[in-house]
Write the structure tokens for this entry.
Amino acid sequence: MSRGRTIPDQDITGDSAGGISRRAALAGAVGLTASTSGCVRQLRSVVNRDDIQQLSVTITTLSADGDRESIRLAREIATVLEAVGIDVAIEMQADEEFLRTVLINHDFDLYVGRHPGDTDPDFLYEMLHSLYADESGWQNPFGFTNLLLDDLLEAQRDADGDERRDAVEDILEALSIEQPFVPICTPIEHRLVRDDRFDGWDAGHLATRTGYLGLEPQTDDSAEQLRVVHTDARPSQNLNPLNAEYRGRGTVTDLLYDSLVADLVAEDGTHTLEPWLADGWEWTDESTLRVTLRPDCTFHDGVSVTADDVVFTYRLLDDTALGTSTSPAPAPRYRGAVEAIDDIDAQSEDSLELTVETGQAVGERALTVPILPEHHWSDRATPATVPGVRVAQGTTQAVVTDNIPPIGSGPFQYGTHTEREHVTLERFDEHFTRRDGVELPAPTVEAVRIEINPRSTSAMQLLENDNADVTSSILESYVIEDVEEPDGVRLLESPSWTFYHLGFNARRAPFGNPRFRQVVAQLIDKAWLVDDVFHGHANPIATPLTDEWVPDHLAWNGSDPETPFLGSNGEVDVDAARTAFEEAGFRYDADGNLRVRQ
């Protein structure tokens, strides 16, 4: 699991007298240099033009049924690109098709969508490290490679405290130069809840397991079933925690599967790492983590959860072929987490020891992956076979199985499902959170029925008519102003760590050119898009991290401090944009078309 790389010494820690600033060092090392002069433009005019054509791009995004905001963002971005001489087509796809195209097949030019993000900046390691440029999943879908940024990403993993905060700042400064993707905004999450049937909605964030545990039923009827309405059908079709095409944030996974440690997120967005399946952990030295499991825990089928299951899980996530293939087949999810672990061994039935490759902060977050039962998953380390579908070499059954019925050890167990209609989970009464003396949120209802309803408007109607208790999916922004709150119904507002963004496929020209990406970033009026597309129910951003990690000079200040919009009120200054492209090394024909070498 080790990276097997060392971090070279680099003096980019700050300004000093007679020295070079961190910002200047990053700019030079990352590779973005000063603007191209006009004389270079003249030189370029004598170059052979036979293979130079107008730039044509396709923006891949979700359909309106999948994510109305994504398609509207894509259309606005397409309009701006067309205004500056780029030929643009938009390809709309369903949720799983979109994720398969972008995350698995990498078959796109540009895409617009929402990244799951995280409350901790280490997700950027998985998202951008060049080691993952050819892997499937949310790890580096852009195919972006930059050795300096690799070093910065590793540096923040290996650090703790203020040193780590400084390393994260270095990463954000490098991203502002390279723009491997353009962060646009974070949505303000709105959901409807019924206060007359449950109390405690404000105790946990409804994008996590804590939002559905510890609720206090207000009636005998509500104690029997929590009625959830969800606009995404995928949880009713596939319950494989490793599948990147069907998993979003993994809320259902967290209800079905335990992790050693839980990232408990409060409704206000604050979060803490707390022991979950683990009874506790301790650092015996700087790189050795000893974990003790809670006693007498079982999977839903009655088989005991042991340290061997934990060891198996981390080895499966690192290589779903378990060493039987000619090359490793890492899981398309949780890749960054397991990369933090260099070795893991069971010391006894209920204790294990992990050798951590990173700093302690990142090492502890590596304990948040779902623990899988070895007796159900060991035979899935075989080559995948999907009737009528050609799968990539190295793909295993562990990745393609729908995993229905799922067997975990979480607070709820699988009950029934009907594709595109519902999935029902039943309370797992033997779960450790229901034991006396365990001060963690526990399941309080006998069952959770997740009904699938594709539209925010009809989902809201179910709740307003007392046919549902909570809209678990984020309500689409255009409906917020029309929300009614009859007696017993409340609109709940929560912070988000997900973010909308424009992604570039750096495997294709000219998207691998940082100069091109930076000019495109300046064509996006994020503040205007928040007002026009999200009706104000989002926050424009200059970086993909939550506010606590963003230094003041990189924070949104009414505009992007590094790539300010070339225009105003959503209208791009075409002349300024063309000049920016030309100074970046590109040129236009007599008809105003941006031309590139094909």
Notes: The chain has 18 helices and 26 strands.
